[in-house]
Amino acid sequence: xxxxEFYRExxxxxxxxxxxxxxxxxxxxxxxxxxVPETMLSVGCGPAVTEFAVAERHPETSVxxxxxxxxxMRDNRDLAADANVENLTFAVDTLPDLxxxxxxxxxxxxxxxxxxxxxxxxxxxxxxxxxPGGHLVVSYPSSGTRRGALEMDEQSQAFxxxxxxxxxxxxxxxxxxxxxxxxxxxxxxxDAPDEPFVTFAPTVVVQKEQ
Length: 210
Ligand SMILES: C[S@@+](CC[C@H](N)C(=O)[O-])C[C@H]1O[C@@H](n2cnc3c(N)ncnc32)[C@H](O)[C@@H]1O
Prior knowledge:
binds S-adenosylmethionine; methyltransferase activity; single chain
């Protein structure tokens, strides 16, 4: 099943897929250690639990979430309107190429490249949208992702076919070679607990030069 069908056909959970309830606080810790972005683009935002938290905690930050699923974007938009969250917008957009224009202080793309075949082109699209001095936080599909996927039930594993088939796996060195810059480990940067998501979803942070 594809993600678009998944959100259309299911009563899906409103969860942060990566790091669950901890993720909004981990990202908040990142802001404390760097700065609160004025603009944030989240690619593959899913049900946008972290994005809602950022928008509610930081009314001065404009948060824009995009995802491949039109149904999900409509649901997210309705939820933002119901909750009177005015600094949070949503649109349909699909990696590896993005229609979304502009440059953002933070481009955030977690637990999404697992489902993208052309990881390198996707990384370039994400990096292109980082403003000078801004940050990219991105998870990439790795051998650790594959080990985790192989432990999933058959239905969940089907979503990870590119990872399981070793079609889109990357190392941190690969990511650095595409971006042309050194990265830092996001989980270490925010003192994330030693939990399975750290190896399942290696995530790096990189800052663009001013
Ligand atoms: C595992 S969920 C992660 C959602 C969110 N980032 C989180 O951590 O809760 C993966 C999301 O990526 C979206 N997605 C999958 N392929 C995509 C693509 N090519 N472009 C944009 N979004 C995509 C899916 O619709 C899904 O919402």
